[in-house]
Design goal:
The complex is a heterodimer of chains A (about 160) and B (about 450). Chain A is an alpha+beta fold. Chain A is built from five helices and seven strands. Chain A has helices at about 1-5, 50-60, 105-115, 125-130, 140-155; strands spanning about 35-40, 45, 65-70, 80, 85-90, 100-105, 120. A four-stranded antiparallel β-sheet of chain A has the order 2-1-3-4. The N and C termini of chain A lie far apart (about 65 Å). With about 450 residues, chain B is of the alpha/beta class. Among the domains of chain B are: about 35-210, Pectate Lyase C-like; about 425-450. In chain B, the strands form four sheets. Chain B has a 14-stranded parallel β-sheet. A 13-stranded parallel β-sheet of chain B has the order 2-5-8-11-14-17-20-23-26-29-32-35-38, with no helix packed on it. Chain B is globular, with a radius of gyration of 28 Å. Classes of the chains: A alpha+beta (about 160), B alpha/beta (about 450). The interface of A and B includes residues 29 and 138 of A.
């Protein structure tokens, strides 16, 4: 019985034919960038990029989430969100340009960063402080950087 | 006597047929043997060239991969075929101003990353190429001001392969000012994929049986004009863009997938979407989280859902025509949109002063959409009497519904006729003439002469 309770939530397989991201509407590819969550009332929601899942949480809150999953970059196994290790770099290409790649343990994250020569390693708590900036060049330069420059200049 | 003559003529016919078959077979065999016998290395050929050379490739079969690191112009012919099974790109272009034209590339790779042509330099022109690939077609990386025109890109492996193993037809990243014109792309993942590229012009391309016909991600100031898409999962997927013009495109029959759309706009700002035709799609126009766009003079025809608005505000919808859609429009959380002078064919307005514009507004009831978003299974009750009744009863927040203040009373015929005439007459004429010729032939030769 207890074990049954523990297994209440489980990650569902990705069906590329029918799964689209609940936020950006793009096809969810069965790759390492796919993420998903199951709400406490049993509704499963899939995303093509961890950034989209973050956006969903901003819109809907996190109280009603039963379990959320990300995938290991190397073997695509589903990892619980708070157990995963995250690596961010603006140069990493992900479906919605959030630039975050996930790993099941810190060791494989370290290996990836060593191989790439760049990347900031984060755990779940550090990820909560992340600014979730999309590396979209034009958008950033015009929207965010542009604004930042304006603000800075107006203050000084 | 007659019988003998007839059997004789049958025999002659049979012999002639056999001869033709044999000739065809011989030719094919000869072609195959020549291509096996004399495969030349393209790299060897390129190494002989100096910068600035303009040459014509002699007919024959060449083998990839090859790297072009000097400014050359290479033109082939229909008999030039480049075979590549190496896993590396068939041709890598590293030098500015390279010009390739008019030959075939057969890019047979197992990994989906490998393209037929990889461009990493500026002002490269690729035209009249026929590319068959089982990876990507053409990839541009940091390659500004390139021109890709009149190319044909098709998927090489049989259709049974799932889209996840496919590559994109034309794939741009960080490449500004590229012209992509009059290409034909079928069967690949995304026909034309653009990311982080400014001022691209995508014009007059024909895109079919792909995942997304045109897929824009984070684009500024580009033109998507006069393209034709058919039977893709989604015709144009326009995401995270600003200052883009989407005009004169035709997207038909995007309906096989449960998430198909003609044109999808997500996070689109300050753009103009006009004079497009979306016909026979699951959803004609889908717009989410987009603002300050102008949608005008679009024709939304025979879709399941004509237009769907979600969380979009401050857009203008002017003079669009919604004709014969099952559900004309759905709108939720979309405020401050200016909707005027559109034609909604299910709407019955009242025109008191006979100016062709209804005095009563057309409001889009969000009831059904709200209901099925929360519980998709309620789609079973689509247009059941109960659902229609409840929908009519529902007036909650009526002032916030998306509303066309002055809907048109009649179809704007000038727009519609121009489409239908262009589409139909040529085909009908051709078929008619063909039928006439066959009829004349049968009557004269089988009827009159035998008599």
């Amino acid at each position: 019985m207890l074990a049954g309770c523990g297994d209440k939530y489980e990650a569902l397989p990705i069906h590329e034919e029918t799964d689209i991201c609940a936020i950006c509407n793009m096809q969810v590819k069965d790759d390492a960038f796919a993420t998903q969550l199951t709400t406490k009332d049993g509704k499963n929601v899939k995303f093509d990029d961890i950034g989209c899942m973050h956006k969903w949480k901003e819109q809907h809150g996190t109280e009603n989430i039963g379990m959320d999953y990300v995938r290991d970059y190397n073997d695509k196994t589903w990892v619980e969100y708070d157990q995963a290790t995250y690596v961010y770099d603006a140069s990493f290409r992900t479906p919605m340009a959030y630039g975050i790649i996930t790993f099941k343990d810190k060791k494989s994250a370290d290996a990836f960063v060593a191989e790439q020569g760049s990347g900031k390693i984060m755990n779940e708590k550090e990820l909560a402080m992340h600014d979730w900036k999309q590396n979209t060049d034009t958008m950033q330069m015009m929207d965010e950087d542009g604004h930042m420059h304006e603000e800075k200049s107006s203050h000084t | 006597m007659k019988k003998v003559r007839r059997t004789l003529s049958y025999r002659l016919l049979l012999i002639a047929l056999l001869l033709i078959c044999q000739a065809l077979f011989m030719e094919k065999a000869a072609l195959a043997s020549s291509s096996i016998g004399q495969v030349k290395s393209l790299q060897f050929f390129i190494d002989q060239l100096d910068a600035g050379d303009v040459i014509e490739l002699p007919p024959g079969t060449y083998a990839g991969p090859a790297t072009i690191d000097k400014k050359v112009s290479i033109r082939g012919s229909r008999e030039v075929m480049l075979l590549n099974q190496s896993g590396a790109p068939a041709i890598s272009i590293l030098s500015d101003g390279v010009h390739l034209a008019n030959f075939q590339i057969n890019n047979h790779v197992s990994g989906d990353q490998s393209p037929a042509i990889l461009v990493k330099s500026r002002q490269v022109t690729l035209e009249d190429l026929t590319i068959q690939t089982s990876g990507y077609g053409i990839i541009l990386r940091d390659a500004d001001r390139g021109t890709l025109q009149n190319n044909t890109i098709t998927w090489l492996k049989p259709e049974a392969n799932k889209p996840k193993q496919k590559g994109n037809g034309i794939d741009l990243y960080n490449s500004n000012g590229v012209l992509i014109k009059n290409n034909k792309i079928t069967g690949v993942r995304d026909a034309i994929y653009l990311e982080k590229s400014r001022n691209a012009t995508i014009q007059g391309n024909k895109l079919s049986r792909t995942r997304y016909g045109i897929h824009c991600m984070y684009i500024d100031g580009s033109y998507v004009i006069d393209n034709e898409g058919q039977s893709n999962m989604t015709g144009a997927m326009i995401m995270g863009v600003k200052n883009v013009v989407v005009s004169g495109n035709v997207f038909r029959k995007q309906s096989q997938n449960v998430h198909s759309q003609g044109i999808l706009l997500y996070d689109v700002r300050s753009s103009s979407i006009n004079k497009n035709i979306v016909e026979g799609n699951r959803v004609g126009l889908y717009m989410e989280q987009s603002s300050e766009n102008e949608l005008s003079h679009n024709i939304v025809l025979r879709n399941f859902i004509g237009i769907q608005l979600i969380n979009s505000y401050s857009n203008q919808f002017i003079r669009n025509q919604f004709i014969a859609n099952v559900i004309e429009a759905e709108a939720t959380d979309s405020l401050k949109n200016e909707i005027t002078g559109n034609y909604w064919d299910s709407f019955q307005g009242i025109d008191l002063n006979h100016d062709g514009v209804s005095e009563t507004p057309y409001a889009i009831n969000p009831f059904y959409q709200l209901l099925v978003t929360q519980t998709p299974a309620f789609q079973l009750f689509f247009q059941s009497p109960g659902m229609t009744f409840l929908s009519d009863m529902f007036t909650n927040g009526h002032d916030d519904w998306s509303t066309d203040a002055s809907p048109l009373m009649n179809i704007d015929r000038s727009q519609i006729e121009s489409i239908e005439s262009a589409q139909g007459t040529a085909d009908v004429l051709a078929i008619g003439l063909l039928l006439l010729c066959i009829a004349i032939y049968t009557i004269i030769y089988l009827g009159v002469i035998r008599e």
